[in-house]
Specification:
single chain; alpha+beta; six-stranded mixed beta sheet
Length: about 425
């Protein structure tokens, strides 16, 4: 994960800037012995908390004036780094002009040694919701007036799980009118595979009389499911839970951000193919599977011919399009079980698991050569692009992963030196 963030923040900065266009406050914090330091803040942080770029590389205690608040936040981040699990909490943030109640989730990010190097913090403004919940506890009548105008979907559920009230916002968020919910069990609107888990959490609220927050897939009136964050708060009378108030909001975008981060950790941002890290993981898995089942694994290393000339002649934007064309052609030329990865520049690699004989790898290599016989059309340009391939096969040529990569790479460079062929095959003693 550290490799991801280092590469991501240096080469793919424009990707993380997507967070500058979201309303949530987003921090990327670095875990260091001297303190938790700010590594990135989005535009919402600057707008709401009035932070600026001088915050970067400073620690929490250097930025936050209130030492007690800084200590509390530092403890939360340290807990994430130690437990290796996300932490969710609500706290008050202050700028010079107003108070801000934030619903904060901290997500750990690990390096290859399993250490938590960075922590991603996403803070959602729940100032209005927080004030609403206080009023709900004080006066249910006042609650109903406010709930009618809430942008979140608010429900009243009895201890048996039956819905007794739904705010009008349900029609905007999930398409169902309030009347569609009335008298039904709340679990009917949740995706089936999550119902048992959510029902257990509902019982937890009843037994412990404590609020919980869950992320669930909720049915939309049009038939699909959307991600919703639901805060369930018990209403007590004489120490007994008489109702549960739930406040739900659509968090599909947040889930998408999270999944995008995961994709970027293991995929090349330009081509969308697996990156070097995921390639090595897939190769390792394929070799272990082959060892157990007595199979072969092919490895094809691919490098473009004269790619620098394309960039110099047509510009880097056209060069990027050529990379994408290469990626798509390679995907079409291989089997579904194969992994096509971009290692950098115009260098690609393909893992070919579950081979019975070396000839199968050669067949795929020949198919790749054939798909590059046709020039690439980029806009008004018709660009001829050829590739050089090197092939190595486990266990025929070696049983060692690093050696397999080296042999395939060596075979590829032999191809470059031989204009008569587009691929060469490795052997334990050299290239043939």
């Amino acid at each position: 994960m550290q490799t991801f963030f280092d590469t991501y923040l240096s080469e793919g900065l424009r990707m993380i800037r997507l967070f500058d266009y979201v309303d949530d406050l987003v921090f990327l914090m670095k875990v260091e012995e001297l303190g938790i330091s700010y590594h990135y803040i989005n535009q919402a942080v600057k707008n709401v908390l009035l932070f600026d770029d001088a915050t970067i590389n400073r620690t929490l205690h250097e930025v936050i004036n209130d030492a007690e608040e800084a200590d509390l936040l530092d403890a939360q981040y340290r807990q994430v780094a130690t437990s290796r699990e996300p932490v969710k909490f609500i706290h008050e943030l202050v700028n010079p002009t107003r108070k801000f109640i934030g619903d904060t989730t901290l997500y750990p990010a690990f390096n290859e040694e399993g250490e938590c190097i960075y922590i991603l913090a996403i803070v959602k403004d729940i100032t209005e919701k927080h004030q609403l919940e206080i009023k709900l506890r004080e006066n249910e009548a006042r609650y109903r007036l406010i709930a009618e105008n809430s942008l979140d979907v608010i429900k009243l559920i009895n201890p048996q799980g039956i819905i007794e009230y739904v705010s009008p916002s349900s029609e905007v968020i999930v398409g169902f009118s309030p009347s569609a919910y009335m008298g039904k069990h709340f679990s009917e609107f949740l995706i089936e595979e999550e119902r048992e888990t959510i029902l257990a959490k509902f019982e937890q609220v009843l037994l412990e009389a404590k609020s919980i927050t869950v992320e669930v897939k909720h049915l939309h009136e049009q038939g699909h499911y959307i991600w919703m964050e639901i805060i369930a708060t018990p209403i007590l009378e004489n120490g007994v839970v008489t109702q549960i108030v739930t406040s739900a909001r659509d968090i599909s975008e947040r889930i998408e951000y999270r999944e995008q981060l995961a994709r970027m950790a293991f995929h090349d941002y330009l081509s969308g193919l697996p990156n070097r890290r995921l390639f090595e993981d897939r190769l390792k898995m394929a070799l272990k599977h082959a060892e157990r089942h007595g199979e072969r694994v092919g490895l094809i290393v691919i490098d473009g011919r004269n790619f620098k000339r394309i960039n110099d002649t047509y510009g880097h934007e056209v060069g990027d399009e050529v990379i994408n064309k290469i990626a798509r052609r390679l995907e079409l030329a291989v089997r579904q079980v194969d992994t096509v990865a971009r290692l950098g520049g115009d260098e690609f690699a393909i893992v070919l698991p579950e081979l019975a004989e070396e000839r199968e790898a050669i067949f795929i290599a020949e198919r790749i050569v054939n798909v590059f016989e046709e020039p690439c059309r980029i806009g008004e340009h018709l660009i001829e692009f050829k590739v050089d391939l090197g092939i190595a096969v486990y266990p025929d040529h070696t049983q060692d992963q690093k050696e397999l990569i080296r042999l395939a790479d060596q075979a590829m460079y032999s191809t470059k030196a031989d204009n008569k062929s587009s691929y060469h095959i490795a052997s334990p003693l050299g290239v043939r």
